[in-house]
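step 4 of 6: structure.
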Amino acid sequence: MFALDEACFEEPFWFSLRAMRRFAGAKRAATILAEDEDGRLVGFVVAHQEEETVYIVTVDVAQAYRRQGIGWELMQRVERAFAKARRVELHVFTENAAVIRFYEGMGYQQIGEKPGFYGRDAQGNRLDGWVYTKALGC
Ligand SMILES: CC(C)(COP(=O)(O)OP(=O)(O)OC[C@H]1O[C@@H](n2cnc3c(N)ncnc32)[C@H](O)[C@@H]1OP(=O)(O)O)[C@@H](O)C(=O)NCCC(=O)NCCS
């Protein structure tokens, strides 16, 4: 999962191995994997619940497997896995138009901004995040 995350993101957006272990191993967390027919990991989603909100830590699909509905299926399954929660929340880099389209297509709505959520790039530019949410059980 860590290797796939490194392949999917630019460096400032990587999770450290430690952070990924911590998120995936959290008390009310779910990790859902997508594998090819040979059992190789091609995608995954990590989410955890705090009170009535499920937070999507990350959803990654290997480049060669994108636009085949795998990301959508992973998100559907995670929403079903936490069906008793009230809402799902996630962050997305404000300049990542493709991923914004992906989430908005699934019914997620922008509710706020977190300046500097992703730190800074190598040139020192601030990397901001949008906060997105979707109500569950409606
Ligand atoms: C975001 C991501 C998980 C999507 O996975 P995927 O398996 O390619 O997504 P799907 O095939 O299920 O796409 C579902 C819909 O989302 C939209 N979408 C997905 N990728 C898109 C793109 N690059 N550009 C525009 N729309 C896109 C489309 O509407 C798509 O439906 P369509 O293919 O019928 O047009 C994948 O691109 C990825 O791993 N990106 C890098 C990691 C990342 O940024 N993750 C998000 C963390 S915030």
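step 5 of 6: annotate
 - The domain at 2-135 is CATH 3.40.630.30 (Aminopeptidase).
 - The chain has one domain: 2-135.
step 6 of 6: archive
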